[in-house]
Amino acid sequence: MKTINNQIETIARIDRLIRMQATGTPEALASRLGISKTTLYRTLNVMKDLNAPITYEHDLKSFVYEKAVGFRFGFYVDSGLVSGTKY
Fold it and tell me: pTM (2 decimals)?
């Protein structure tokens, strides 16, 4: 279970840095996160599979979102569900 938590935490950190347009180069970002460049690209591809519109902006030397998006992962209370409903 720790692995999945680490992956979610890494995605959340990347998301925050992208929003600030402060990822730096792929090499710098991988180093900052303590992961390999290969793992970074694998994680970015997972984010893209989840519909994150990520691109690299050479002038900014940062990954950016092509349009405004939000990232949230976890459980939340859905007021539309009936209490005690079993699936």
Answer: 0.81
